[in-house]
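Input chain follows. Return structure tokens only.
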Amino acid sequence: MLTRQETADLERFVDAVKASLPGYRESEQQRQMVAAVAQAFDDCLHGSAPAETDGGNLLVCESGTGTGKTFAYAIPGLVLARSVGKKLVISSSTVALQEQLAAKDLPFLQSCAPWPFSFALAKGRGRYVCPVRLELALETARQARLDGDADICVSEADALRRLAEALDAGRWDGDRDQLDDAVPGTLWDRLTTDRNGCAGNRCPSFHDCAFYRARQRIRDADVVVANHDLVLSALEMSPGSVLPDPSECFFVFDEGHALPHKIVQHYAERHPVRATYGWAGEVPDVVQTAVHALHLDAAMHPRVQGACADVMRALGPLWQWISEAQGWTDDVLRLAHGAVPDELARVGEQLLAAAEAVLDLLGEARVEALKCVAESPELVQQLLAELGARIVRGTRVADTWTLMLRHDRHGAAPTARWIERTGDDVVIAASPIDAGDRLERALWRRVSAAIVTSATLTAGGTFKLFLHQTGLNRLPAVRTLRLASPFDYREQARLVVPRMRSSPTDAAAHTAEVAEMLPALVADGASLVLFASAQQMREIYDRMPAVIKAQALVQGQLSKGAILQRHRQRVDEGRASTIFGLAAFQEGVDLPGAYCTHVVIAKLPFATPTHPWEQARAEWLQRCGRSPFRELVVPEACVRLAQAVGRLIRSHTDRGTVTILDRRIVTRTYGRELLRSLPPMRLQLFGRTRGVAAGDGLDSEGRSRTVEPHRQRGTSVPPAA
């Protein structure tokens, strides 16, 4: 239960926000979310130790568009974190939300808070310039120009000079994202470093280092704005390296629907085979340079040569096995059920042992180089960067084969393992099918308390899939709360399913019919047309009449930001504008009011399991006698469809139409599940308006039927006070 002081601070904070925002609307959904977040953070004080928790300190909240979830989690998070001496970490999946939090939401909350608080952005080391490497690059460019080296272009040398001058003068803080002019990736890679290439506090530029200054701001801040990738990486590092120990933090994962994909990506491993030959050939030269330049132990070089020769010897049989392997499909060789053939396993064991021996020697060389940093700081930093780059590449090889050769637990989902041809190389890849158990151990059982929120976390009205994918299903006391949007969808929006002759199962006929219907649908106003495949999008665009092509902005022809900017400009000028987009425009796109009055969905967003990981996941479920379509494909389509539909209504005053050009949503039994995932819009079916909302469902013939109405579900939460 909140203390009197916490309750008073919460009330004062909310009142100040209300008073400072003209036209502020507080909804019942927002009040419930504030109470639920406060309870989850408060319960961390009364529950078990983190390692023994049953999840009572965790809340999963689906918060419909317009709820005001940022304030709903930030206000109680700030109050409770301050009260108990915790740091509040807000993690997002996109740069856009991080920038919104840092530039708009948190400064506003600072002006309303009953007491001062500070915040800082947390980014990876690669977003910051290394001052030593910048100086080295600048010196190299100067010398090259004096020598008449045409390979160093004038523009690059000038760019380096401007960066160095801005950094020295304090006009630039070393953060790549704060530059007015973009720096090409190939140049930036020479100006930054990773932890293996960094001398840390032994570097003479340590106190002027942008990354370490940013890290100090994180240590001092009350609130840290991070991203999901950074949080997952920090969990594997020593506490304090990037973020404090999870037991000292309250976490909020905004845009939490992206977590399952981020988790799988984070724990996946891969390495190219041909490029590994190159790595093994480069390492001896890099070590020899360090030995000679820093007068290290001369015996180190022949030892490294021998270890790299072992890598080369192991790569030969690996390449031969790959070239003789049978069962390739479209340049992919998937290992059924994740089972590694004995011969491949033997080759992999040899390569793993050899790669680990090289990594040990590189680590030894790095330690010895660090001892010389006081005498030759610039030289050591340059050599550390070269050694560090080879350590990273070697670690990929070792980590990939560690996962390839790991024995999967009996009865558990196996690891997906495959080999794929990419250009003139071949990539070895492995990924857990289910990484939820890893996140359970790394985060959920360690964190003081955590909130996961998004507008789309449920599929067909349940949290089952999301909880499983994130490992939260292993904690029985996790709270779930589903809050509907405060918007009046029955009045503001309608869902249209027109009569169609074709089904998307006949791709050619469906594409032709969509191309026939689309011009009339998007002729006027501002439309967003979402496609499930790039091929269909291109084919339909090619069939559009000239007038529609003139108003169309097609993903791939311009950047996403440029498309949105041109679209808004056209609408502001009173012109028709239509965006043709894929999954990138399905979420994270905010086009309120006149900027989007019609969302057209060409095809239900069912994912075809073409990726080896997806195929392995489906294979595992089939092996267990379960249906991948029912358990994975349909629920995931529910989430994607809800995200797409969510692009339409962004405020209380918006009005518009969603048109779905896929009759399966009303003719197939799974259509009811898809409809239950949508807001309760008026449904216009086959040209007639039904007295039923999208969330109410239909039978297989398109007739209305009575199902559980779309309403808030979840754990009942008492008021914050």
